[in-house]
């Protein structure tokens, strides 16, 4: 799709993880880390800053060296933000990379690549077969295909024959037709369109198209296409599925679109872009024909809709079995993408009065991160005309200021005091996830002593059961194992003797952590029995439960902020990488957002896992998931899930401009994520993943001037 384009990357630092080995191939002979067999497709690359010292276990050379080897020019130290503004004002523009400033008198020739048949240049010249013994037989028309499309088919057992763009198709030689993505204007590919028309006329073979393939199928059925002003290019574009109303993150790169108003009576729109309302897919109402404008095969980008390959192959196999079509592709997609919201998460009536548990008393050395989440929640509820009651022991905080909450109680966050407030105020709902661990622990105690049930107070947002499951390490480990994910080998113990026994089983060195504790109190590493004895004594003073973990010292610590609504729409808003290796609490560590040394594969492997885990626990609102990632492989463990707004959430909100706490409060009322507006643009949806054209670094600062007689 990038053929002969000058590509501008908006993220400022490029090449941090270098270029992997080109000769690394899989069992089908496909390169493992590249999306095409034949070098680099772009005409040139424009970046803000190029990294000369990549940091990744797979890298074999720098990005610059690879481009030099391939003879592709690149230019760095360009203000890409300013350049992006120019492209935004003018739409896609022609450009050149030159060595010196051009002479204003001299006319510069710009060549428009779209006047050429770019598809013919990209396409294979003769058929290639992958997985020759596989079944069913898929014929893939190569208009400029990405290799992951072939991988998605062969991984599911199919045989793929990749044919040139203008190949004369024989319907007796294949069971399903796939039309790939590619560059340029669909009008140029008349030969391909003729072949698709022939297949549609002569058979009922299932057809699936992606990107340019979507535009070509649309043209073959008589639809019109048009050139967009900007096009859609990125890994975070939200698409709404018409059959279910659910929103999915997609990867896109296209400058042309299909006019859905020109669809015939037997066809309907399948997906629509949630931001600009352009068409993102079409489907036949009864026959097995469908196509999408985005890239479900991802690489790079989100893996949310890879199941489209399953749906296509199921329709192919069903036709081969000769049972006739038991379920249409349209119905099958609706069935696979449907989600039935749980009754509790969609409360029948909206609460009129809500109690918010604020953070515990702040002490020296703590920042007011939970003040941010509390005040955002109040703001969101006020917009919905809901009365807010706040319990918070901190006098000098924003959320306790005049004009925010309707009523403030300056009381300690203990079950006894909270019960008195509930008794006096009789709120309809309560929010537990906006005041950090203190509010959460208090809420769990109130639930266990049945206070909420006694006064008929509904817990809004994430169900209390999910909170308990993520907090108790043993239950958490078992629940995570149910979906085939792993937490680091660990044991929960209640005494020093048990701690020593557990360490013998797991093997030294170990990490000891106090459960249900604030800011990682009583945690540390132990290399032997003596060190563990001292640590265990300290930790058991803070908490009755102590966790002994396998030591992952030196591993990368990565975390994701995840948002999910009651209708199962799920996004990851921000991911962060700790500069310090695992073992230093995030609050005290230097943190960089977004992550700098994760390749696309690692980033999306952890993103997909995060979404899988959050769905499994049924979180509604915002939560944070932390991973340990081996710096020498793709091995990872889940460290923990905070089913609440954490200290990182405040950082993520400020880093991305995405108001996590505000959105989480709206979601707790049963509002759908696609229905919330993006607070920055006011037009687009909040169901998107921010892409940053800057890098954020958080450095902890200890303000010693507050302490008298301390040496600095």
Structure description:
This protein has 712 residues and is α/β, with parallel strands linked by helices. The protein folds into five domains: 111 residues, Glucose Oxidase, domain 1, CATH 3.50.30.20; 220 residues, Rossmann fold (3-Layer(aba) Sandwich), CATH 3.40.50; 106 residues, Rossmann fold; 62 residues, Dna Ligase, domain 1 (2-Layer Sandwich), CATH 3.30.1490; 143 residues, 2-Layer Sandwich (D-amino Acid Aminotransferase, Chain A, domain 1). Helices cover 28% and strands 22% of the residues. The strands form six sheets. A ten-stranded mixed beta sheet has the order 6-8-7-9-10-15-14-13-11-12, sandwiched between helices. Strand 11 and strand 12 form a beta hairpin. The chain is globular. The model has no long low-confidence stretch (mean pLDDT 91). It catalyses: hydrogencarbonate + NH4(+) + 2 ATP = carbamoyl phosphate + 2 ADP + phosphate + 2 H(+). One of its GO terms (molecular function) is carbamoyl-phosphate synthase (glutamine-hydrolyzing) activity. One of its GO terms (biological process) is 'de novo' pyrimidine nucleobase biosynthetic process.
Taking Cα atoms only, what radius of gyration do you get, to the nearest Å?
Answer: 28 Å
- The number of distinct structural domains comes to 5
> What about the largest sheet?
10 strands, mixed
Question: What is the CATH class name of the largest domain?
Answer: Alpha Beta
Question: Order of strands across the biggest sheet?
Answer: 6-8-7-9-10-15-14-13-11-12
Average pLDDT level: 91
- The portion of residues assigned to helices is 25-40%
Q: CATH superfamily of the largest domain, called what?
A: Class I glutamine amidotransferase (GATase) domain
Range of strand content: 15-25%
Tell me, briefly, the overall form.
Answer: globular
InterPro entries: ATP-grasp, CarbamoylP_synth_ssu, CarbamoylP_synth_ssu_N, CarbP_synth_ssu_N_sf, Class_I_gatase-like, CPAse_ATP-bd, CPSase_dom, CPSase_GATase1
Catalytic activity: hydrogencarbonate + NH4(+) + 2 ATP = carbamoyl phosphate + 2 ADP + phosphate + 2 H(+)
Keywords: ATP-binding, Ligase, Nucleotide-binding, Repeat
Protein name: carbamoyl-phosphate synthase (ammonia)
